[in-house]
Design a protein that fits this description.
It contains 17 helices and 47 strands. The protein is α+β, with helices and mostly antiparallel strands and 960 residues long. The chain is flat.
Length: 960
C-alpha cells in the first residue's frame, strides 16, 4: 500500500522535523521502496526498445524486469507514479523475460549469460524476476529459466577454484584472494552468487553446495588468529578457510579505495543470494547468517558511518552516493541478520531516497555516478530489499543517538591501508595517508552532504606522498577518552592531526589547506537548500549552488593583446581541465592548448557549438599548468572572458594576455574570494574552523582555504569566543591546541623537544605544570616527529601562581609550592577542597579510575569473533574493562587476544569469576599460527579444559 502524503513528505524531508529527517521504520521502509520503484519505472521505461518490443541489452538494461516484477505482484500499483499502465508494463516485462531467457547461452542462445563477470549478477536478478512471474510464463520460457539456473551452477562448479575463461582478466585469485588494492571479496562473491539460484530453486546438484560454501566462507578472509577456531559453518571448520582478503585491521580494498566501504559487498552478495532461498521456501545456508569474522568487517563499516546510512565514500569520484545500490547490504543485515544497528542505517538511507530521487536527473537511483549503467542494478537491488522486508521482518532500529554512541571507536588500520579513523557521537574523522588520497577527512555531525571527502578530493592535508607516519589511537577503556593523533612526514616538511571525542579536529599544517563543500539544491535533504552561508569576523556571504556546469565571467581593465589564454593553477582533482567554451569578448580566433584528448581538440572550445569541448590529455589530468590559448589574429582590445566548464572545472587559474604568444601578463585570476576573514569561519551553521594565524581563511565558491599553522575544526561551538581565547605559546617546531579542553601536541621536527608550553586556563594534564598568573607552564617532552593528546583530568580553582602540579594519572595528582587553598575538580565532576602546606601533598580522587592503564589487552580484538563454538560467550568480555562481564569458554574453549602489534610481554594475569577455574594454559605467538612461551608476541592465547560448573574468565591483563 502506498504511504500517505504526510509519511511521504516526512520521508522525503519536505516536512521540517526536529532533529533532521524523520526516519522510516518497520513496514514504512518497505513502503518507501515500493514508491521509489514506482517512480523509477519512468526511467526504466526509457530502456524499452519499441521496435524490438523488449528492454535493451545495453548495460543489462533488461534487468529492470526485477523491479517490474515486484510492482506487478506486490503492493498497490499506481500508473500515475509509474508513468505506464500496469497491463503495458506486464506486457513489456513478460516479452523481455521470454526473449532473454531464450537468448541466454545456458539455454542455447548466444546473446548473453554464463560469463561470471558480470552476466551472472544480472542472471540472478533475471531468474528472480521470472520466478516472481512464474505463473504467467509460457512453458518454453520456464524451461529456459530453469536451464539458466542449473547450467550456471554446473558451469561454476566445473571451474573448481580456477578462473572463468569467458571473463578475461577478472579473477578471484583462487581461494586465496588478496588484500592489497583489490581484495577479491567481490569476485569470490560473484562465484557464490552464480551458484545460489541453482541451489535455491533446484536443490543440490553435483558439488553445488560444497562450491557455494567454499566461496561464501572465504569472502571475508581468515585472520591468522582464527586458525584454531573450533567453530563450524555448514559443517565445515572455520579453520579450513584459506583466503587472505583483508588487512589484519579488518579493512578490505577495492578500486584503489582508502576505506572500508567496499566490504559491504559481503552483504550485497548475501542479500542477492538469500532472497532466492527465502522466496523458494528453502532453508538459508548457514554461511549466509554466520559469515566468519563478518562482524569485524561490519565493525569497521560502523566506524565510518554517516547520518545517511552510508559509510564514507572512499572510492573514485564516479562511485559516490549511489543510494539505490547501497540499500541492499543494510536491508540484508536488518532483516536476515536482525541487526538493529543496520536497521537504523537502513532507515536513515530509506528516509532520504525520495528526496534523492526527485533531484535531477529525476527518477534515477544512482545518479551521482554520471553514468546510467548503474541504474538497472540499483533498481534490482532495491527490489530485492523490498522482498527481504516482505520475507523477513526487520529488526527494530536503535535510536540515532544510540547508534553513534555504540559505533564510536578509534581504529588505526595501519600504514598499508593508510587509515586512522575516529567515529564519535558528534562526527567522523579519518587521517588518510594512502598514496593519492592524503587528507584529513571530516564529517561534522556525520553530515554526508557537507564536505567532499570521496576519492582523491583533497582536504586540509597536502596532496603529497606521506613518507613517515607516527600515530596513536586512544581508547576510552584503556586511556579514559577516545582520540587519535598523528604526525606525518612529507618531502617538504611535517603535518599533524588530532581528532577528539567531541567531534573536533585539530591540524598543524605546513601549507594552506583546502576544504570543498557540497552545495546543491536537493529539496528535502538536510543542508542542501541551494546555497551555503559563510560567516566570519569580516562579515557574511551566501554562495548559491551552481545549476549545471560552471560558467565564469571575468572582467579586467581593457588591454591590447593578440593572444589570450587560460593557464591552470589547480585542476579538478580527478579529471583535470575541460571547457565547452572559451570566449574572449565577442572576438573569434584560433585555439591551441598544452595537450588534448583525442576528439576533444582545443578548437572545440571556440567553434560556437555548446555541445563540443576541449579536454586535456588523460596523461595530463594531474598537471596543474595545462593551458588553452586563443590567437585573435591581430592586436585587439579585450576586457572580458567567458569560460563555460565541463565537470573538469579548474579550481584555480589565471587569465593572461600576450602580444606575441611568448611573453604573458596576468590580467585576472580565479577564484576571487567571496569572503576573506581572519580567526574563524562558520560554515552554514553546521561546522566551522578556527585558525591560529594572522593569515585569512578564504571562501572561494564552494572551496574553503585555511592558512598554514594550527587549525581547529568544530561541529557546534561559539567560534568567535574560541578564536578570542589566547593560544598556547610553544617552543620552536611545536604546535599545541587546547580545543575542547584537550591538549593536542605536535612536534614538527626531526629532533626531540624538551621545553615549556604556556597554556591558558586552569586545566591540569598528565605530567608536570606550574601555575602562572594567566594559566600554567606545562613541562613538555615530545619525541621527534610525534603527536599526542592529553585529557584535562583536573581543573584547579583559585590556585595561586607558583604551585607545581604533577598529574600521575586520571585519579592522582601531587601538589607542591604552598601554602595555598583551592578547589580541585575532576573531569568527571568530583570536587575536593585542597589545603596545601609547605610540604608536597598527593590528592587521590577515590571514585575515579587511574587512566591510562598499561594493560595491553584492554579493548583489543579477540578471537573467535563472529562465529563462536557451542557454549562459548564472546571473548571480548574478558578485555572490556568491565567487572560484571566474563568469557565463558565452552567445552575446552580457547580464546586469542590480538595486541595489534608485536610487544615485549612481561606477564599475563587472569581473573576468574567465583568458583573453580578450569585447567588452562597461556601461550603467545608472533604470527597467530605458532604458539609458545616467547617474551615478545602479538597474540596471547588462553586454552582451557572448561566444563560446566567451572568459573568464567573475567579479565585477561597483559603487561610489558
Amino acid at each position: 500500500m502506498l504511504i500517505n502524503r504526510r509519511t511521504f513528505l516526512a520521508a522525503s524531508g519536505l516536512l521540517t522535523l526536529t532533529p533532521g529527517i524523520a526516519l522510516a521504520q518497520g513496514a514504512q521502509v518497505k513502503d518507501i521502496y515500493h514508491e521509489v520503484l514506482l517512480r523509477h519505472t519512468r526511467w526504466a521505461q526509457t530502456q524499452y526498445d519499441s521496435t524490438a518490443k523488449r528492454y535493451r541489452r545495453t548495460d543489462f538494461g533488461f534487468a529492470v524486469v526485477l523491479g517490474n516484477a515486484v510492482l506487478l505482484t506486490r503492493g498497490t500499483y499506481d500508473a500515475a507514479l509509474a508513468g505506464v499502465e500496469k497491463a503495458v508494463l506486464r506486457e513489456h516485462t513478460l516479452a523481455t523475460i521470454k526473449h532473454f531467457a531464450a537468448g541466454n547461452v545456458l539455454a542455447g542462445g548466444a546473446e548473453w549469460g554464463k560469463t561470471l563477470f558480470w552476466d551472472t549478477t544480472f542472471q540472478s536478478y533475471f531468474v528472480l524476476a521470472a520466478r516472481l512471474l512464474w505463473p504467467e510464463l509460457d512453458a518454453a520460457s520456464r524451461a529456459n529459466v530453469e536451464a539458466i539456473a542449473r547450467g550456471q551452477a554446473d558451469y561454476t562448479t566445473s571451474l573448481g577454484t580456477g578462473d572463468d575463461p569467458r571473463s578475461g582478466s577478472w579473477t578471484p585469485n583462487g581461494l586465496i584472494g588478496g588484500h592489497r588494492g583489490d581484495t577479491k571479496l567481490e569476485e569470490m562473491g560473484v562465484y557464490a552468487q552464480a551458484l545460489a539460484p541453482g541451489l535455491a530453486w533446484h536443490g543440490d546438484g553435483p558439488g553445488w553446495r560444497e562450491a557455494f560454501g567454499r566461496w561464501s566462507r572465504n569472502e571475508a578472509g581468515l585472520p591468522a588468529a582464527d586458525l584454531a577456531n573450533a567453530s563450524t559453518v555448514d559443517g565445515v571448520a572455520v579453520s579450513a578457510n584459506t583466503a587472505t582478503n583483508l588487512h589484519d585491521t579488518f579493512v578490505v580494498e577495492n578500486h584503489g579505495s582508502f576505506g572500508p566501504h567496499y566490504q559491504e559487498e559481503l552483504w550485497r552478495t548475501s542479500g542477492r543470494n538469500a532472497v532466492h532461498f527465502l522466496l523458494a521456501g528453502r532453508p538459508l545456508p548457514e554461511v549466509l547468517t554466520k559469515q566468519p569474522n563478518g562482524e569485524l568487517l561490519w565493525r569497521t563499516i560502523l566506524a565510518t558511518m554517516s547520518d545517511a546510512g552510508e559509510p564514507l565514500m572512499p572510492m573514485v569520484d564516479d562511485r559516490e552516493h549511489l543510494y539505490g545500490r547501497d540499500v541492499i547490504p543494510l536491508a540484508f543485515r536488518s532483516t536476515v541478520l536482525a541487526d538493529p544497528m543496520a536497521a537504523r542505517a537502513e532507515a536513515a538511507l530509506a528516509s532520504r531516497l525520495l528526496a534523492y530521487q526527485a533531484h535531477p536527473q529525476v527518477h534515477r537511483l544512482a545518479k551521482f555516478s554520471g553514468e546510467a549503467k548503474y541504474e538497472p542494478e540499483a533498481r534490482a537491488e532495491l527490489a530485492i530489499s523490498y522482498l527481504l522486508h516482505e520475507l523477513r521482518p526487520p529488526a527494530e532500529p536503535v535510536s540515532e543517538k544510540d547508534f553513534f554512541a555504540r559505533a564510536s571507536i578509534t581504529i588505526d588500520h595501519g600504514s598499508d591501508p593508510g587509515l586512522l579513523t575516529h567515529q564519535s557521537a558528534a562526527a567522523w574523522a579519518g587521517t588518510v595517508t594512502k598514496p593519492g588520497f592524503t587528507k584529513l577527512a571530516w564529517q561534522p555531525a556525520h553530515d554526508d552532504w557537507l564536505f567532499k571527502i570521496s576519492g582523491s578530493t583533497p582536504m586540509l592535508l597536502p596532496r603529497e606522498t606521506v613518507t613517515g607516519r607516527n600515530t596513536v589511537a586512544y581508547q576510552r577503556v584503556r586511556d579514559g577518552f577516545d582520540a587519535t593523533a598523528s604526525l606525518l612526514r612529507f618531502a617538504g616538511g611535517f603535518a599533524g592531526t588530532a581528532t577528539l571525542q567531541t567531534g573536533t579536529i585539530v591540524c598543524a599544517l605546513p601549507r594552506p589547506g583546502r576544504v570543498d563543500v557540497h552545495n546543491l539544491a536537493m529539496t528535502g535533504m538536510p543542508g542542501l537548500t541551494g546555497s551555503r552561508t559563510y560567516t566570519g569576523a569580516a562579515g557574511r556571504v551566501t554562495v548559491k549552488a551552481r545549476e549545471g556546469f560552471r560558467v565564469d565571467e571575468l572582467s579586467f581593465p581593457a588591454t591590447t593583446a593578440r593572444h589570450v589564454r587560460m593557464l591552470g593553477v589547480t585542476p579538478h582533482a580527478t579529471y583535470g581541465y575541460s571547457l565547452f567554451e572559451f570566449e574572449v569578448d565577442q572576438a573569434r580566433g584560433t585555439a591551441t592548448a598544452s595537450s588534448a584528448d583525442p576528439g576533444y581538440e582545443p578548437s572545440k572550445a571556440t567553434d560556437g557549438d555548446p555541445g563540443t569541448r576541449w579536454a586535456v590529455a588523460r596523461a595530463d589530468r594531474g598537471r596543474a599548468d595545462s593551458w588553452i590559448s586563443v590567437d585573435l589574429g591581430t592586436a585587439t582590445t579585450v576586457q572580458r572572458v567567458r569560460l563555460r566548464w565541463e565537470t573538469a572545472a579548474a579550481v584555480a587559474y589565471r587569465v593572461q594576455t600576450s602580444p606575441d604568444g611568448a611573453t604573458w601578463t596576468t590580467v585576472a585570476e580565479y577564484p576571487r574570494p567571496d569572503l576573506s576573514t581572519t580567526g574563524w569561519l562558520d560554515v552554514d551553521g553546521r561546522a566551522g574552523f578556527v585558525a591560529r594565524s594572522a593569515d585569512p581563511i578564504t571562501v572561494q565558491g564552494d572551496s574553503i582555504t585555511v592558512p598554514s599553522g594550527l587549525v581547529e575544526g568544530y561541529v557546534e561551538a561559539d567560534l568567535r569566543a574560541i578564536a578570542a581565547e589566547p593560544a598556547p605559546v610553544c617552543p620552536a617546531n611545536v604546535r599545541a591546541s587546547t580545543a575542547d579542553g584537550f591538549l593536542s601536541l605536535f612536534n614538527l621536527s626531526d629532533a626531540d623537544v624538551t621545553g615549556t608550553v604556556r597554556l591558558p586556563g586552569s586545566r591540569l594534564y598528565r605530567g608536570t605544570q606550574t601555575t602562572t598568573r594567566t594559566g600554567t607552564d606545562y613541562a613538555l617532552t615530545l619525541p621527534a616527529a610525534t603527536a599526542r593528546v592529553e585529557a584535562p583530568w583536573f581543573t584547579a580553582q583559585d590556585m595561586p601562581p607558583g604551585i607545581t602540579a604533577v598529574v600521575h594519572d586520571g585519579r592522582r595528582v601531587t601538589f607542591s609550592g604552598g601554602p595555598a587553598r583551592f578547589t580541585l575538580t575532576h573531569r568527571d565532576g568530583f570536587r575536593l577542597p585542597v589545603v596545601l602546606g609547605p610540604s608536597e601533598r598527593t590528592v587521590t580522587v577515590p571514585q575515579a579510575k587511574p587512566f591510562p592503564f598499561d594493560d595491553l589487552a584492554l579493548g583489543r580484538v579477540t578471537f573467535p569473533h563472529s562465529v563462536l563454538p557451542p557454549g562459548m560467550s564472546d571473548p571480548a568480555n574478558a578485555v572490556d574493562g568491565e567487572q560484571d562481564t566474563a568469557w565463558q569458554p565452552g567445552r575446552d574453549g580457547r580464546m586469542v587476544v590480538d595486541l595489534g602489534s608485536a610487544q615485549p610481554i612481561g606477564g599475563v594475569s587472569l581473573k576468574w569469576t567465583d568458583g573453580t577455574p578450569p585447567p588452562h594454559t597461556v601461550t603467545r605467538s608472533l604470527d597467530g599460527r605458532s604458539y609458545g612461551t616467547g617474551g615478545t608476541a602479538r597474540y596471547v592465547a588462553i586454552s582451557t579444559g572448561w566444563r560446566p560448573g567451572h568459573a568464567s574468565l573475567r579479565s585477561v591483563s597483559v603487561r610489558r
